Amino acid sequence: MSWVDFVRFRVRPGRAESLLSARSGAIEAFRSRPGFRAAYLVKLEQGEWLDVMVWDGHEAATESFSTGADLPEVAAYMDHMTEVLGEERGILIDGDPPGG
Questions:
Q1: What is the pTM of this model?
Q2: What is the architecture, at CATH level 2, of domain 3-91?
């Protein structure tokens, strides 16, 4: 059963391009983690962003999400965020599984 993490945040003014570059490094770091399936970044209105990550199960999501900030690449990505507006996690009910 796939689990999905949602993090809604704001980006420091003028740092959207560097956010994208830093996110590439963060995603590569997460690819080495067991259970990582996919990641999506959505630019919302009014300077808000939504980061969506898909995991093989609850255990993989919990472990990687709780220790992710310890990875230098993830810390560099998070440095671009001025404010985390919300975090949620849920079970993927309907959708094509990533990669298949």
A1: 0.84
A2: 2-Layer Sandwich (3.30)
